[in-house]
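=== Structure Prediction Worksheet ===
Name of assembly: unnamed complex
Input type: mixed (protein and possibly other molecules)
Chain count: two
Listed entries:
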Amino acid sequence: MSETVLDVRDLEAGYEPGVPIVRGASITVRKSEIVVVLGPNGAGKSSFIKAIAGLVPITRGTVLLDGKDITAAPAHTMVRLGLAFVPQTENIFPLMSVEDNLRVACGILERREAPARIEEMYAMFPDLARQRRAAAGNLSGGQRQMLAVARALIVHPKLLVLDEPSAGLSPKFVSMVFEMLAGIRKAGVTILLVEQNAKAALATGDRAYVLVEGKDSHEGVASELWNDPVVAELYLGQRPLSAEKTGHAEKGGAA
Amino acid sequence: MSLQFVVDGLLTGSMIGLGAIGVTLTYSILRFSNFAHGDFMAWGTYATLAVVSAIGATFGKVAPIAPLSFGWPLLVALVVGMAFTALLALLLDKVLFSRLRAQGQAIIVVMASFGASMALRSLLEFSFTSRPTYFSRAIQIAMPVGFGIRITPDQIALLLLTALLVLGVHLLMTRTQIGRSMQALSQNAALARIVGIDVAGVVRVTWILGAALACVAGVMIGILVQIRPFMGFDMLLPMFAAAILGGIGSIPGAVLGGLIIGIAEAGAVQLIGAEWRAAVSFIILMAVLFVRPIGLFGVRER
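=== Predicted Assembly ===
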């Protein structure tokens, strides 16, 4: 078993005190893996990774990145700690040029390293290189997603965390985004993502967790999980879960 | 009609524009209208005056620099005054604005700035009385430069200083990491944090920049007109009009807006009478809000 990059233990988090959305979820991400977090609507997937990224208050549990405790570190310190987060929406600065979007993210790099690193991103995403002077707000949906990912990768993160990278994209772009993620993993970056699009995510991912009512209820190899009847039932949400199975009464937590 | 109003307008416009930079930065980055900005101007000017007096008391009378009405003591005092004004703004943010900002209601912060404005102004009146005062009582001879325009050496120097400062701020905003961070914060505060921008640090730079420029604008008024506790408050409407005319968040817009309002005011004084001066910025402000609410250089949120 290769080394653990991210170790989340018994995480409880939520925006309001006493109303946790994430209720004791645990996951592990190993080096160079793509790990997918799935779950029905309102399962707290998005809050879960936002809590890891320091954007949702954590009330219990620990988050270890490369063995270092980063639980509830302020969001702006996360890139320095090695965790780069790509939000689902509004993940670029629309009025700034493509290049300035990349430059502004280079704050933790050595001043001399930044220009070369930007060129490396252009080499990885030629579409962005062609539009480096354009306002980022003028990019297409798929290109915006590329820019957001490039912006996150530019600081050499140990872990890339993405919140529904395929949300709102047309099917053509969805497959493009997942090909891009597979390519990034090949370059040695460890990836954790949350997805609604289970089929595409499981096709690209190595392992997956299913989050139900704020807890991790299933874990497995991505390709096998897709065929697991329990998971299909959980994920597709065709039948309500019995309370015993999840340890929680039906409360319908918000996402 | 004499073209003198163009020079007068450019001068007034420079002061408005330098002040409007702070207004537009505070509005776009901290997301509130800071009504105390004018009083930063007045406090900066009085601080500068105090330092000039202190230097005078220590070194005796210093001769002014060649054709200008002021000497090195004023330049040194200006730098000290800018630092003082920046500290005042940082202090006010720490004890007042930042706490209210954390509660998340913009209108409360705006009202607090209104209260701070009154308190700051009253403190000035209390300490320095409301009688106008001057950096220098020397009278400068205006030189004719053609087209019926006359200009004093002080005026030329201050126009140049304005141009230099505006260029500097523009380069800071577009070419440096702190400038890009300020732009990023004004566009999306949550994402700014995610990309690793220390929001508290950027907020501090915003206050320092806005307050220091307000001090310069105030000292310009002090050199060319007079120093009064109300000098900043009287600039508030023109500054807001300039920031909105230029498009909130735009530095070149704020400066151009200031120049347009300055020239319009000066023109109105010459054409229809001095009592209409104050109405001009109000009319321009209303017209912009009706016709093009995003201003000259403003951009619609996407």
